Amino acid sequence: MTRVLLADDHQLLRQALRRAFEDSGVMVVGEAADGEEATRLVDELRPDIVVMDVTMPVLDGVEATRRIHSAWPDLPIVMLTMHGEAELRAEAVRAGAAAFLTKDSSMQEVVATVLATAAGEALSPDLASTILAEFAETGTTLPPRPAESPLTKREEEILQHIADGYSTSEVAAKLFISGKTVKNHLASIYDKLDARDRTQAVLSAVRIGIIRIA
Asked: Final residue of a domain: which of 85, 115, 137?
């Protein structure tokens, strides 16, 4: 059973999220009203995934994500954002966020995204815009393709599909290979790009110019 920690300063939203998760068979192991409490509860409760609001008192969600990611680099964190927070999303990616959800998402979308992220099965739909915002914020352009790539042609093909938002099973179906084969390729990609998950792998690949985002 997936164990989730909720971090949001709005109690009513936390209650709604808890109900949605528990109705879906997900265990909510704790709730935090600010980023500092979230970092403490991660150490105490060791959840499988954290759902973190960006804007919170005491310690904001981005800094909390940075601290949690530093201590627990394999723990995925899903950020809750409002519309128009592209720069904050880019900063959160750099801090270690694995996925994003806007607060107007349905509870079904939240649960599905959190479960997929916890299982390493999908990227946030907002990832492409977040990466583009990061380049815009730093004033840089997407780099040209390098003469040599650290990835094989098949690995690049798989990672491009992942960047386009396809899940493991969807990539397998598109390429007529097994899901296990896709996962084996992803493991090799992570190793070559020194990435812990899909988000970091896509970010690294975009930064060095071996895949593109729309």
From this structure: 137
Place of tokens 């990616």: 93
DSSP string for 104-162? TS-HHHHHHHHHHHHTT----TTHHHHHHHHHHHHT--PPPPPSS-SS-HHHHHHHHHH
> Which residue spans within the chain are E strands per DSSP?
3-7, 27-32, 49-53, 77-81, 99-102
CATH number at residue 175: 1.10.10.10
pLDDT in tens, the chain (214 residues): 899 999 999 999 999 999 999 999 999 999 999 999 999 999 999 999 999 998 899 999 999 999 999 899 889 899 888 755 667 777 777 788 888 888 888 898 889 889 888 877 666 656 656 666 666 555 556 667 777 889 999 999 999 888 887 888 888 999 999 989 998 999 999 999 988 778 778 888 888 888 877 6
Closest by alpha carbon to 11, among 33, 35, 42, 39?
Answer: 33
CA–CA separation, 19 and 120 (whole Å) = 23
**119 and 147 share a domain?**
no
Q: Indicate the pTM of the whole model.
A: 0.74
Tokens of 61: 């969600």
